[in-house]
Amino acid sequence: MISKAEGKFLRVSPSKARLVIDLIRGKDAAQAQAILRHLNKRPKEFLSKILNSAIANAKVKGFSVDKLYVSKAICNPGPMWKRFKAAAFGRASSILKRTSHIKIELDLKA
Could you tell me the pTM of the whole model? Predict the structure, then answer.
């Protein structure tokens, strides 16, 4: 692991974020940025910020972007916001607004 970046308590469902993470895992850093730039999914905003942060961390350490790839990208569930919606006959049904913890690690190509 050369550099890493982490985003916590992000307001995106972990299952939806994992669909986008699977597209960039194992790709070159520049290629992953291009994939996220042209994607039409909401989690790409969070993932591109975290990926850019990891790349900036690697640049501070003196590594070139051309030699980096996404070695590890994981999305774990965070705490859920519990909300209620009015239901029939005076009841309330629960709504779980999910959050995510996303971690991206970059490493040198072999």
Answer: 0.91
